[in-house]
Each structure stands twice: as structure tokens, then as C-alpha cells.
Amino acid sequence: MHTLKVGYVNYIILLLLLTGWLVIQFDVKSNKAKHMHKEAKVSRWFGWFNIVLGAIALAGNWFYQKYL
Questions:
Q1: One-letter-per-residue 3-state SS of 20-42
Q2: Which of 22, 51, 61, 65 is most buried (most C-beta within 10 Å)?
Q3: Is 2 a domain residue?
Q4: Cβ-proximal residues to 45 (8 Å cutoff; 6+ apart), any chain
Q5: Confidence band for 7, pLDDT divided at 50, 70 and 90
Q6: How many CA atoms lie within 13 A of 47 on its CB side?
Q7: Do the beta carbons of residue 29 and residue 9 sit within 8 Å?
């Protein structure tokens, strides 16, 4: 029996991936233009962290929906 579930995982995944991409695209470039290299490095790290976390959440959600 298939039940309807309301969940927020898909929204969280979308937000993680989108904010990671936006941080890398805008914040890193802005910091580099202002010659703030340490801030650019931290922004790049946080951007990639969000993207990787979003990818892990996507894979985990897919595995949960498929096999559990």
C-alpha cells in the first residue's frame, strides 16, 4: 500500500545545492575581486561543503525511497 508522505528532504537538497552553487559563483568571485583571498578560500570551502552535503542527502534520499 502506497501512502502519501509530506517531506521536506527535497527542499533541503535543493537549498543545499543551490546555496553552494551561489556561494561559489558570487561570493568567491566578489572576495577575489576585493583581494580578500582568505575569505574567498573559506567561501569556496563552504560552497563545496553545501554541494557535497546536498549530493549525499540526494543519494541517501534515493536509497531510502528505493530500498526502504
A1: HHHHHHHHHHHHHHCCCHHHHHH
A2: 51
A3: no
A4: none
A5: confident
A6: 16
A7: no
The answer to whether residue 1 scores a pLDDT higher than 90 is no
Q: What is the pLDDT of residues 16-57, one digit of tens each?
A: 999 999 999 999 999 999 999 999 999 999 999 999 999 999
| Listed residue (49, 1, 51) closest to 21, CA to CA | 51
The CA radius of gyration of the chain, in Å to the nearest whole number, is 16
Asked whether residue 40 is domain-assigned, the answer is yes
The contacts of residue 9 (CB under 8 Å, 6+ apart) are 57, 61
**Residue 3, domain member (yes or no):** no
Neighbours of 17 (CB within 10 A): 18
Domain span holding position 59: 9-67
Q: Name the domain count of the chain.
A: 1
